[in-house]
Amino acid sequence: MRKNERTKKVLKATNQYMVFFLLVAFVITCCMTLFVTVLSDSLRVELTKETVSSAAKVTFWNVLFISLIFTTIDKLRRRHTVELPAKRIGEAAEKIIKGDFSVRIERQSRFATDESFNKIIDCFNNMAQELSGVETLRSDFIANVSHELKTPLSVMQNYGTLLQSPDISDEKRIEYAKGITDASRRLSDMMTNILKLNRLENQKIYPDFKEFDLGEQICSSLLQYENVWEKKGVQIETDIADDVTVTADAELLSLVWNNLFSNAFKFTEPGGTVGVSLSATDNHAVIKVSDTGCGMSRDVGERIFEKFYQGDTSHSSQGNGLGLALVKRVIDIMHGEISVESTVGQGTTFTVKIRRQQSGDIK
Ligand code: ADP
Asked: What share of residues in the chain are helix, strand, coil (percent, to 5)?
């Protein structure tokens, strides 16, 4: 194999040398013939066979020597301007193949190489940057999912072990069994949310746009929480405009209201108030969901739409940080806007603005 490579190298060098030899031989022969003919004519010197043959021999050795110099110079030039940058790009690509996305290639000096190599290097560096971003997202996602899976699983294991004790009271048995049911419900909710988010992100759900009464939809979503607000003693204030119809995907939008309402009730202490309002212009509908709950800081507010982010850990067992990520994705698909205003200790207001007519395309 090595011998083979060496032979190839020798053949390549000979080939390059031959190109220069033929070129130099052609140029020099033409020049010499012209020069000698003009000189002999003007000096009226008779050229004999011997003088021409000895001059041809000297010229031949000259051509051999000059071709060698040209080949060497060309080899050095190619090594610096082509082979070295190509080698660096190849080495970096191999590192990427092995999973090292931190690799970056330094740009070549403008005089050292062709500018097109710098263009390739720029594209390569951008590609490596994108890949490392995707890799971080993927590993964060896996870490988050594993963490979220572990908590309910260990709760189920603990309750399962406790249930194995022979002398537990009926009361305890019911409590442990409820613990297992709650943890498994949490797991199943999380998997449902991950699947929904995955489908929404990969755009496998194509919105099914139909005209419907938005006020009616919001009221029926809110009524699902009647038990919760009655049990918690939370006041409800509504200001829903009549006859606001929108052309949108009703199922996707109900995901938005359910998440916003469930958060409002979750983060509002007994005796607090949750308010819902709907107003509309010719083109847009604006929905506000407000509460007098714990509120959130500006730092938390900036991250609430991230997957698995939970700003308030005291309620972490009642969610998995995917609700608002789903909401944001649905609003994006609807070409709408969502914003949040919040003051710690005073409450939060989410404002959603959606188009009343959708163009039908998805982002
Ligand atoms: P989860 O289901 O865990 O609540 P979400 O994505 O719905 O996840 O919410 C993410 C975070 O946003 C919550 O952990 C909380 O810190 C914050 N948040 C959302 N809604 C409210 C609200 N109405 N009041 C205060 N904080 C909120």
From this structure: 65, 15, 25
